[in-house]
Amino acid sequence: MSRSTILVALDNSTGGLVSRDQLERICDQLREEDHEVVWARTAEDALALTQSRADLSAALVSWDLDSPETVLRALMGRFTKLPVFLVTTATSVDDLPLWVSEVVSGYVWLLEDTPDFVAGRIGVAARRYLDGVLPPFFREMRRFEDTHEYSWHTPAHAGGVAFLKSPVGRAFFDYYGERLFRTDLSISVAELGSLFEHSGPIGDAERNAARIFGADLTYFVLHGDSTADRIACHASVATDELVLVDRNCHKAIYHGLTITGGRPVYLVPTRNGYGLMGPIPPAAMKAEAVAEQVRRSPFAEGAASPDPVYAVITNSTYDGLCYDAVRVAELLGATVPRLHLDEAWFAYGRFNPLYARRYGMSVDADALPDDVRPTVFSTQSTHKLLAAMSQSAMVHVKNAPRSPVDHRQFNETFMMHATTSPLYPMIAGLDVAAAMMDGPGGRWLTDEAITEAIRFRQAVVRLGRRIKDAGDRADWFFGAWQPDEVTDPATGQVYSFADAPLDLLRTEPRCWTLEPGGEWHGFEGMEDGFCLLDPIKVSITCPGVDALGNVGGMGIPARILTMYLETRGIVVEKTDAYTCLILFSMGITKGKWGTLLDALLDFKSLYDSAATVADVLPGLLKEHPDRYQGLALPALCDQMHNQIGKSELTSLLDEAFTHPTPAVFTPAQTYQRLIRGGTEPVRLADIAGRTVATMVVTTPPGIPVLMPGESTGEANGPVLRYLHALETFDREFPGFPSETHGVARDSAGDYWIACLR
C-alpha cells in the first residue's frame, strides 16, 4: 500500500523544550520516509481521527494525554493489529494496566534513542502492518500488476491498449483509468489461481473468507446472489424430489426448481396491516405441520421420495425480519437434511452481537447436536450491504454429518453456473469485502451503521412529537416501523422508543424482537425471540393505516411520497401501500439521513399548505396533464387513499399472498410447455380457472402472487380480486403504475398474462 498515515496523539505544547524538539525531529524523519503525520493534541481529537481516518498505519499515543486509555481502546476496536507505540515519561512501565502492556507494540522514551532510530522503528512497523492488511488475492493481483508484463492472452484490450486506438475507446479508458484494465486479466495468468479449481490466491481468498464468515466452505460467485441461489439448489435437489419453499423467496429459487425439476411444497409467511411480509410462524415449521403440508400438496404423489430433501428460507426478509436461525434449523432439521438460508441482504449478520444466532453460519455443532442439525447453505449478495462490486456474491456452507457437502460434487454444479472469463477486480472486491469484516473492523463498521439507523429512527419519532406538542400546525407526521416502547432487561425500566438510551437500542436484541401479540408489528403466531427486526432496514410509515390494518380517515399513500423524494434526488429501496424502505448501509452518513429528514418535513409543509401537483410533482403533471391539472396535493392523496380503501387493496394483498391458488404443474413441467409454444396471452377479465405459464410478481412486495403452473383460481378469489384491484388502480392513477412482472398492459390499461393452452 502506498498511503501511510501515522497518528501522533500527544500534546506538544507541554513538557520541556528538549522533548518537544525531539518529537519534531521524529515526525520530520517520518515525513522524509513518505509517511503522513496527523496530530491530535487531545483525546477528543485522537478519537475523531480514529473514527475518520481508515488509512492509519501506526500510532504514537502519549500516556500523559487527557484520556489515553480511551484512545487506546478506540484504536484497538477500530483496527486489527495496528502498531501502537506508547510515549511515556515514566522510568518504568510496571504501573501501567496489564491490558495496555498487552496491546501496545512498544514504548518510546523521547530522550532515550535518536530520532532516526525511533522513526525507523515506527516506519518498519507501519509498512509491515500495511502489507499485512491486504487479503490474499488482492495482494497477489497488485503484485502481478506491478510487474507490467506484456499480455499475449485475452481479454483483447490487452491492459487497455486497444481502447487507445479509438476515439470512443480513449474516452472509455480515460473515464475508468488504466489500473482497471491492467487488472482485467485472463484465466491464463496461472499465478493468480483458478476460480474453477479454487486454487492459488483465489482459493486462498475463498478459504480466508470461510474463516471470516464462520463457514466450512466458501465459494465466490460473480453473477450475483441469484446465481448463488441456483447453485445451492441445483447441487442439492434431483428431479421429482420434494422441496420446502418459503413463499417469500426470491424468484431465483423458483428458477432453481425449474432447472432441477424439484417439486415445491410451500411454507406461507404471515402478513401485517401495512402489507409487509412477516416470518413463517414456528408452528408451521414443526415436523407434523410440514408433514400435513406435504400430504395436501398435489406434487406429493409420484415424488421421488415422500420426504422433502431441502428447505429454503429467506433470512432476513425484504423488510428486515431476521429469524433465530438456530431455532429454524432445529425445527426444519427434523424434516430435511439440508437447509438453505437466502441471506442476500444479511451478509453482515455474523459481525455484530446484536444478530447472535440470527445468521446461517451460527448453526454449528455447539448450537445443535449432529442428529438434529442440517447442513446449512448461506447465500449472500455481498455487494448489497457489504463493500463489494455489483454482482458479487458468496455461497457459504456449514456441514453436518447427515448430508455433508462434498466439494468435488458441489464444484461440478458450481462450474455449470460460473463463467470461464471471470472479472478479476470482482474477485478482488470479494476478497477485500471479507477482509474489511475481519477482526474488530466488522464490529466497528456494523456498529456505525446500526447507530446511525437508530439515530434516524429516534429523530423521526421526536420530530413527530415536537410537531404535536407545538400545536401551531397539523399534528401529523411520518413514523418509523419499530416498537413504541422498549424495556431494559437489566433494570426492568421501560422507555418510549424516542427516549431510550442509544447504547441500549444498539446492543440489546430484545429491544427489536417481535414479542407474541405485539400490536406494533401485527404478526400472529410469534414465539418469544423467534424473529428480530433489523434496525438498519428502516420502514418509514405514512398516515393511513396501522400494523393491525386499521384504516384512518386521512392517508398519504407511500407512492406519492416516494415520487416526491425522487424529485429531491432521494431513491428508496422499496415502496408499499403506506410504507417505504430505506437501507442504512456502511456507506451511510449523517448528512445523507439528515437530507431525507428535511425532505419529509418539506413534504409535510407542502401538504399542509395545499400545494398543487404542478408545484410538488411537475413531471407527473407534464406526463398526464388531463388527469392532474389544478389538483392539490391533499386532494391527490385523498383520492388515492380512498381508492386503496374502497378496493380493499391491503387486505386483498394479505389474503392473496397467504392463500396460494392450487398448483397444476411443477415449475419444470410448465417451463417445458412454455418453450414449445404451448402458451397464449389471456386478458385478466377472462383468466379465471386458467393455468399461468410464468411467474406473476407484484411490486410491492416483489414476491410471486402466482407461480408457473398454478391455477388463477375463481374469479372472485383473493388472487384475481387483488390483480383486478391493481389493474383498476393503474387506470385511476396514471404515472403511479404497479410494477408487476409477468403482466403486459395494452393501450386500454387491461392486464394480460401468459397461460398454458
Automatic annotation (TrEMBL):
GO cellular component terms, semicolon-separated: cytosol
GO aspect biological process, one term: L-arginine catabolic process
EC number: 4.1.1.19
InterPro entries in UniProt: OKR_de-COase_N, Orn/lys/arg_de-COase, Orn/Lys/Arg_deCO2ase_major_dom, Prn/Lys/Arg_de-COase_C, Prn/Lys/Arg_de-COase_C_sf, PyrdxlP-dep_Trfase, PyrdxlP-dep_Trfase_major, PyrdxlP-dep_Trfase_small
Keywords annotated in UniProt: Decarboxylase, Lyase, Phosphoprotein, Pyridoxal phosphate
Annotated Gene3D superfamilies: 3.40.50.2300, Aspartate Aminotransferase, domain 1, Orn/Lys/Arg decarboxylase, C-terminal domain, Type I PLP-dependent aspartate aminotransferase-like (Major domain)
In-chain residues carrying the UniProt-annotated modification N6-(pyridoxal phosphate)lysine: 384
Gene Ontology molecular function terms on file: arginine decarboxylase activity; pyridoxal phosphate binding
Modified residues (4-aspartylphosphate): 64
Domain Response regulatory: 5-125
A Pfam family the protein falls into: OKR_DC_1
Transcription keyword on record: no
Family membership: Belongs to the Orn/Lys/Arg decarboxylase class-I family.
Protein's recorded name: Arginine decarboxylase
Organism: Saccharothrix ecbatanensis
Organism lineage: Bacteria, Bacillati, Actinomycetota, Actinomycetes, Pseudonocardiales
